[in-house]
Amino acid sequence: MAALESGPNGHLRLPQLSGLMDGFVRLADVVERRVDWLWPGRIAHANVVVVAGDGGVGKSTLVQAIGAAITRGAALPGGGPGPPRSVVILSAEEDTSAVVRPRMRLMGADLERVTVLDIDGELLTLPSGLDRLEARCRQDDAGLLIVDTGPAFMDPGLKSNTEEDIRRFLAPLRGMAERLRMVVAVLVHLNKDSGRAAGHRIMGGAAWRNAPRQVLMVGGPPGEDPRETCERLIVVEKNNLGVYPPAVSFQLLAAPEDPSRAVVSWGQEVRGITAADIVGDPPSGADRSELEAAAEFLRAELDGGPRPVKDLQSAARDAGLAWATVQRAKDRVKARSRKSAFGGGWDWSIEDSTKAVNGRASRGDEHLEHLREIPGVIEFPANLSREDIHHPGGQQVEHLGDQRRVVAQEDDWSVHVEPISEGGR
Predict the structure, then answer these.
(1) Residue from 234, 240, 239 nearest 269 by CA
(2) Which CATH homologous superfamily contains domain 37-279?
(3) How far apart are the C-alpha atoms of 111 and 64, rounded to whole Å?
(4) Considering the domain 283-350 in this protein, what is its CATH number?
(5) Residue 5's Cα: distance from chain center in Å?
(6) Where are the domains of the chain?
(7) What is the pLDDT of residues 325-361, one digit of tens each?
(8) DSSP string, 67-85
(9) Which helix (H) or strand (E) holds 130?
(10) Which end of the chain is more exposed for a tag (fewer CB within 10 A), N or C?
(11) pTM for this one?
């Protein structure tokens, strides 16, 4: 046992040990570690992330799309690929056979790596059922647990509007996430008070936002009714682990193999959009006027045919229009993006439509819009011809045949196709 030392004024004190005996630690003795990201800037490994949005906005579809990518080891927008891992889903709101399985299949998930709790079987609530849940996640090597929704899986007696009860629910999940180096995504709904700050829109107690280190919010474009557009945005509302990244756009499009079902088609980063923009008050008269001005700008610019996006950005600056507003107006005028046949980037155009997707026009080739400078796998319609895809140098992709999967490499924009197995169709 170490001897006591004499401190100032003759008081006795503990010796200066590198490992302090009272639970404190000096920062000089702490080994730093980098944050390990599943989705850089947006979702960290070993972490609980809360995903909030109005009912029907597409939260479940979005998080399951992230899960589908994890099962393949595929990259998320702006990220890189990783080792394939499994996904465990607790869903109190979606039927496994009618909704979850077909959706995950259509989004390309490796179904052997997806486990769903049978809600007709033995009940599981948390935190009392944590040991059972952790055993399953450990056995499956799960990289993602989806809890849809959080309040539905709270132990009886716990209240979703009580600070202490919410923390009793989330804290054990965070411990499991750290032990298994996985992500726990807890889905929650928003309340109807659109006049409140975005962080206070989450239904229930404030701890749904205060307790986790990261909170994501999902919604439609500012000023748009999500029921009338397939456009969506995911925004980081809270991030204690790094800087706030831009919003990311995505679309809920009819699956080529089954047009009755919606799947996620990733877009691009959108700067200048905050959580308040997608879940706050409806736009003011001035905001609507700016949106209408941007819509008129696009109609005029695209009246003569397709225009390169770079040219539109320059023209928008000259017209005093924010590019984020122009992007919002794109859906209003039913403009579409298409890869330039000359490999020079993307063109926007306004064309007649022949199909309807989720209440808006569609030519069936929306997936072409998302062959961007990000790694990953992009699904294309079954009737896609090789003339529709071009290498940046203008070289067409040959020998498509019945293949439907195209892989875009970030490093050199090389493009090749690979077959989809029967299990992935």
Answers:
(1) 234
(2) P-loop containing nucleotide triphosphate hydrolases (3.40.50.300)
(3) 12
(4) 1.10.10
(5) 56
(6) 37-279, 283-350
(7) 888 888 778 888 877 665 567 888 886 533 333 333 3
(8) HHHHHHTPPPTTS------
(9) helix 130-140
(10) N
(11) 0.65
